[in-house]
TrEMBL record:
The keyword Lyase does not apply. Residues 1-16 form the signal peptide. This is Matrilin 2. SMART domains: EGF, VWA. It comes from the Eukaryota. Its main location: secreted. Keywords: Glycoprotein, Repeat, Secreted, Signal. Residues 32-211, 263-435 form the VWFA domain. It is found in: Secreted. PANTHER family: COLLAGEN ALPHA (PTHR24020), MATRILIN-2 (PTHR24020:SF35). GO terms for cellular component: extracellular region.
Length: 476
């Protein structure tokens, strides 16, 4: 995508409250622009009208037409209700009238469902979005006033990875962390929170003061060669990558965070304290990480062992060379459900899992992820130290009654990059806050990036498990 937030905000350069069209407008950049409007019952009727006024004022500075900016809009409550698509109207007057005709839904707050519709349907060519090879920026502006009743992190990340720039506007008591989970980066440009609906109009002047008047260097530089995103600076530009990718050494192309080649061995706690249901979540967690890795003959190889009172190799590093093969093997794992001999598992990993006989390759980074939920019945320090001294990078994920001292003995240094803990499976999503995105091309850091994404996925899986267990419980 050739244009980022700067091109968009320049369209908003005049103060929408004053509607002073005598000012020189910013350079108009064609957009595929979609409003995603919270229409839940928590929004009072007069505040709902203020949102409609905000939308109408905002589009005054868009040049709307089939070959200019196309505008679509949906509102959502408990369900998604598309009002008009990107191909419905060809001029500003029709869009304005459609906004005025909107009726308040006054139901729930299914923000995640709305984002999913935006990604899967609203920005398709069938609904009026222009082909990706035309490099028309796809913008979604989400306006919400409450806590979502569904999960938003994963679907918002998928939408951003698909090339949709998301602006998240919160009104009132909206959790800022939720807005940041929705909006694109940098958050200072894409995430905004106002105290009430009377203040929402002030955002247009905020956009003006921030960016109007600056030259769009990406637009001026026709051949900027950025693979994903071009971002203008004062006198030049820089390239950025979509979430889940990182900038390569050439400063222009992008690589998936999981593209780092490594030999990765999972060491999974299968003790009785975990329980069958949580063991299934761990399997889902592992498979989610596998989805994000470049598993191939020349790419990343994955092995896995499960431990309880004994240690069992589920599959070796040399056994599978496709993600599908690894995932099927993980899904077939049978829960052991006995004791917790973490030390024995580390010994087995050190002595066998990274051997040439089991598929380990020379001069390839060696990484192990240890997952445990309780105190080990044997010593962990000896074999963890030997593994680290041999060059294996050790990550450890502790849940529940896992002992901090044991986790520190297992993890590589520094702890803040290699040790993650949550009080229980319900709170495992909190690990996400401790994990850091990968900024440098390093297989170890790329794994951290993947773990962040999968911690979010585990939140979703855990939530699904709760609903399956308690089907009669309604979402508040």
């Amino acid at each position: 995508m050739r244009f980022l937030a700067l091109g968009f905000f320049c369209l908003l350069c005049c103060n929408a409250v004053q509607l002073d069209r005598r000012q020189n407008p910013c350079k108009a950049v064609p957009l595929d622009f979609y409003f995603v409007i919270d229409s839940s019952r928590s929004i009072r009727p007069n505040d709902y009208e203020k949102v409609k006024t905000f939308i109408i004022n905002l589009i005054q500075f868009l040049k709307i037409g089939p070959d200019a900016t196309r505008v679509g809009l949906l509102q959502y409550g408990s369900v998604v209700q598309p009002e008009f698509s990107l191909k419905t109207y060809n001029n500003k007057a029709e869009v304005e009238q459609a906004v005025r005709n909107m009726e308040h839904l006054a139901t729930g707050t299914m923000t995640g469902l709305a984002i999913q519709y935006t990604m899967e349907t609203a920005f398709t060519e069938e609904e009026g979005a222009r082909p990706a090879n035309l490099h028309i920026p796809r913008i979604a502006m989400i306006v919400t006033d409450g806590r979502p009743q569904d999960t938003v992190e994963e679907v918002a990340a998928q939408a951003r990875q698909a090339g949709i720039q998301i602006f998240a506007i919160g009104v009132g008591r909206v959790d800022m962390n939720t807005l940041k989970a929705i909006g694109s980066e940098p958050h200072s440009e894409h995430v905004h929170l106002v105290a009430n609906f009377s203040q929402i109009e002030t955002l247009i002047s905020v956009f003006q003061s921030k960016l109007c008047g600056a030259e769009d260097m990406c637009a001026e530089t026709v051949d900027h060669r950025c693979e994903h995103q071009c971002v203008s600076t004062a006198d030049s530009y820089i390239c950025r990558c979509f979430e889940g990718f990182m900038l390569a050494e050439d400063g222009e192309s992008c690589k998936k965070c999981g593209d780092g080649v490594m030999d990765l061995v999972f060491v999974i706690d299968g003790s009785k304290s975990l329980g069958p249901a949580n063991f299934e979540l761990v399997k889902q967690f592992v498979n989610g990480i596998v989805d994000s890795l470049d598993i191939s003959k020349k790419g990343t190889h994955v092995g896995l062992l499960q431990y309880s009172t004994k240690v069992r190799t589920e599959f070796t590093l040399g056994q599978y060379t496709t993600a599908q093969g690894v995932k099927q093997a993980v899904s077939r794992m049978q829960y052991m459900g006995r004791g917790s001999m973490t030390g024995s598992a580390l010994r087995h990993m050190f002595e066998f899992s990274f051997s040439a006989k089991e598929g380990a390759r020379p001069n390839i980074p060696r990484v192990s992820v240890v997952f445990t939920d309780g105190r080990s019945q044997d010593d962990v320090s000896e074999w963890a130290t030997k593994a680290k001294n041999s060059g294996i990078t050790m990550y450890v994920l502790g849940i529940g009654k896992a002992i901090e001292q044991e986790l520190r003995e297992i993890a590589s240094e520094p702890d803040e990059k290699h040790l993650y803990y949550a009080e229980d499976f319900e709170k495992m999503g909190e690990i996400t806050k401790k994990l850091k995105l990968c900024f440098h091309w390093d297989p170890h850091l790329s794994l951290t990036c993947l773990l962040e994404a999968m911690s979010k996925k585990l939140e979703t899986l855990e939530s699904q498990l709760v609903h399956e267990t308690c089907p009669s419980e309604s979402v508040l």
